[in-house]
Amino acid sequence: QVQLVESGGGLVQAGGSLRLSCAAPGRTLSSYAMGWFRQAPGKEREFVAAINRSGLSTRYADFVRGRFTIVRDNAKTTVYLQMNSLRPEDTAVFYCAARSAPYYNSPKDDPEDYDYWGQGTQVTVSS
After folding, report:
1. CA 50 to CA 96: how far, in whole Å?
2. pLDDT band at 49, cuts 50/70/90?
3. Mean confidence (pLDDT) of the chain
4. Helix, strand, coil percentages for the chain (3-state, nearest 5)
5. Residues in a beta bridge with 71
6. Beta strand 58-60 with 92-100: parallel, antiparallel or unpaired?
7. Distances from the Cα of 56 to the Cαs of 64, 75, 98, in angstroms?
8. How are beta strands 46-51 and 92-100 bridged, if at all?
9. Measured between alpha carbons, how far is 127 from 125 in angstroms, rounded to an integer?
10. What is the spatial distance between Cα 103 and Cα 54, in angstroms, rounded to a whole number?
11. Residue 76 has pLDDT above 80, yes or no
């Protein structure tokens, strides 16, 4: 069992930035490919970004490409989602997810591919 903890959410004005973090207390995430998803009120959970175990391959939803960046630190203890140029429609609960995968496996955008989930962090973008 892997416990994931997200942090970094909050309230920001449109055009602003936030950086979300995801960590597993007491362990590294080196064995896992990682993803970020979000869920807005009344909507289904949707894919945002993913990164493979090596950190060399990433994948993004069309609506965040060019604004959001997913990275993982060299020690593979934390995965970040840097969010720039935020819009009111980005308001949602953001979830970190992990899945066991080969080192160079392509990032996945299907939530069914992920084994572990965090509790989520709220991001609110005001207009």
Report:
1. 10
2. very high
3. 95
4. 5, 45, 50
5. 80
6. unpaired
7. 19, 14, 16
8. unpaired
9. 7
10. 6
11. no
61 has a pLDDT exceeding 90: yes
Q: How far apart are CA 59 and CA 79, in angstroms?
A: 14
CA nearest neighbour of 97 among 79, 117, 77, 81? 117
Which residue spans within 1-127 are E strands per DSSP? 5-7, 10-13, 18-23, 32-39, 46-51, 58-60, 68-72, 78-83, 92-100, 116-117, 121-126
pLDDT digits (tens, 9 = 90+) for 107-122: 999 999 999 999 999 9
Distance of CA 77 to the CA centre of its chain: 14
For residue 8 the two structure tokens come to 């970094």
The amino acid sitting at 83 is M
Which among 28, 126, 26 is positioned nearest to 73, based on CA atoms? 28
Q: What residues contact residue 57 under an 8 Å CB cut-off, 6+ apart?
A: 51, 104, 106, 107
The predicted model gives 53-65 an average pLDDT of: 94
